[in-house]
Amino acid sequence: MGLPTSIKTLLRGGVVEWARIEFKTTWDPQASLKTICAFANDVDNWGGGYLVIGVSQQDDGTPAQLVGVPPEKIDTYLKNMLNACKLIQPSYMPITEVAEYEGKLFIVAWAPGGSTRPYSSPKHIGSKQSSRIHWIRRMASTIEPTVEDERDLYNLANNVPFDDRVNHAAELSDLSLPLIESYLNEVGSSLYREAASMDFSELCRSMNIADGPDEYIKPKNVGLLFFSMTPEVWMPYTQIDIVELPEGEAGDIIREHTFKGPLHHQLRDALRYLNNYIIVEEVVKHSDVAEAERHFNYPYAAIEEALSNAVYHKGYDSREPIEVRVLPDRIEILSHPGADRSISIENLKQFRAVSRRYRNRRVGEFLKELHLTEGRNTGFRTILKALRSNGSPDPLFETDESRIYFLTTIYARKSSEGVPNTTAATDEVNERRRAMLRYLAKHPSASLSVVARELDVSRSTVDRDVRTLKLEGRLRRTGSTSNGAWEVLA
Question: N- or C-end of the chain: fewer Cβ atoms within 10 A?
Answer without folding.
Answer: C
